[in-house]
Amino acid sequence: MTNKIETINLSLWYGEHQALTEVSIEIQKNMVTALIGPSGCGKTTFIRALNRMNDLIEGVRISGEVLLDNEDIYADSIDVVHLRKRVGMVFQQPNPFPMSIYDNAAYGPRIHGIKNRGKLDEIVERSIRAAALWGEVKDRLNKPALALSGGQQQRLCIARALAVEPEVILMDEPCSALDPIATTKIEDLIQDLKKEYTIVIVTHNMQQAARVSDMAAFFMMEEDRAGVLVEYGPTSQIFTNPEDKRTEDYVTGRFG
Amino acid sequence: MNSGKIAMGVFWASGLITLAILVIVIGHILLNGMGMISIEFLLDSPRALGREGGIFPTIIGTIALVVVALVIATPIGVGGAIYLAEYTHRGTITKIIRAGAECLAGIPSILFGLFGFAFFVIFLGFGWSILSGGLTVACMILPMILRTTEEALKAVPNSYREGSLSLGATKWQTTQNVVLKSAAAGIFTGIILGAGKVAGETAAIMLTAGTALRLPTSLFDSVRPMSFHLYILAMEGLSMERAYGTAAVLVITVLIINSTTTLIMRYYTRALRG
Contact at 8 Å (CB) between A107 and A156? Predict the structure, then answer.
């Protein structure tokens, strides 16, 4: 097993509020790592630290290290644009752009300089297929993406992320706005995707974490700070035989 | 009678009065002016100070001023709005720029005219010309374009920006490809409102663009737009019929501008939203 991402004593503050507290974790390649914990515990902040999306928020301060293939992504020499190409993201609310299905999938490759129509066609088909959406949209690629259902929109967003050929895909509660059938499709998709990608997923849904993930990390907040990593290990262990009392209370539904 | 019914009645009456005023004003102009409109009236030059002949040079004058004003004000207004909405955080400087834009929007147009006269006509030596007039009205509509563009940009959901950035797009690529595209309808509206304002503007123009009735051949020629021509025709008692004719053409021009925009925007929005 190899580490894809490693954080070392990662702390993050929004102004005075500490949202991550010395998180050290090793995320493994070609596995699905689930981040679980109660609302406000810092899961989303953590996942957004892995592709530096927190940079966009004013007053954010960070200490510690985030290593991607042993290279610190917060080092001065790192090109954020290149980093985000390697670490893709799928958001909580499906957010396809107000353009055609085709243009959504082709957005990333175009940004990165691919102009050849044949090449674009190929990438668009490959990534929409990989997102298990091809059969539903292949006849209407020029229709607006916003006309798709929520579940289809979310799979299109996954296709859009896949089109830039990332190494890691971060998913921030990707199913929270979807119905159970759409959720099942995305969960199946995640199983397929882990063969080629490393996946980190934030979820509120315990069953989902148990179903889709290989590793699970449980976060909590304390009185004056959030983002405390309580326990991290194989999902089966976290759910059946946790070491920490707080993890047990949470996964058995005693709070949160 | 209950107060709900009274309120309903008052609102209903207000709506009706608003509509009635619109219908009466436009109806009055069209009723009195439509009779004048003919191919000759539209395409002939005025004779005898406008007592006879058509209004062709004044139509060209209006169009020239609108084009010059938009060519100057649009890039500056849209650029300023992009800076305010996308590239700065809220702070003292943005507050000053916004307050300045609001102030500018509230200044009576004759003051812009006076400034344009002193600065563009005299100081920069552009004389009474399309250029001086266009620059002056550009200053007038700049805050309007800036504010409407800024509002349109702010209405673009942040999730679009995040989506684009998360794919490795730069800030500028994101602004260009996602933000501006989504905000296009709103921005366009601001620009067209500006065009309408220029087409109807009189006070700022008469001090800066001059009164020439000749067909202009360069930016440095003086022109008389329709709005000012109808003012002269009516004020000097030259020809009331031709004043109404000119007014009718002006109203129709503005209506055409507005409805084409609405159509384009509806088409564009449908193409985006499905």
Answer: no
Q: Where are the domains of chain A?
A: 3-251
Question: What pTM was estimated for this model as a whole?
Answer: 0.83
CB atoms inside a 10 Å sphere around CB B16: 10
Domain for residue B234, yes or no?
yes
Cα–chain center distance at A164: 15
Residues of chain B contacting A, Cβ within 8 Å: 89, 157, 159-160, 162-170, 173, 177-178, 181-182, 271-274
Number of domains in chain B: 1
Match domain A3-251 to its CATH number in 3.40.1350.10, 3.40.50.300, 3.30.1480.10, 3.30.70.270: 3.40.50.300
Q: If we measure between CA atoms, which residue out of A58, A44, A53, A160 comes closest to residue A101?
A: A160
Q: Which ipTM did the prediction report?
A: 0.90
* A146: closest chain B residue by CA: B273
Which residue of B88, B166, B171, B182 is the best one to mutate when testing the A interface, meaning the one whose CB has the most A CBs within 10 A?
B166
| Predicted confidence (pLDDT) per residue in B206-262, tens digit | 999 988 888 888 889 989 999 999 999 998 888 888 999 999 999 998 888 888 878
Chain B residues with CB inside 8 Å of A84's CB? 165-168
For residue A22, give the H/E element and its range: strand A17-28
pLDDT, tens only, B114-170? 999 999 999 999 999 999 999 999 999 999 899 899 999 999 999 999 999 999 999
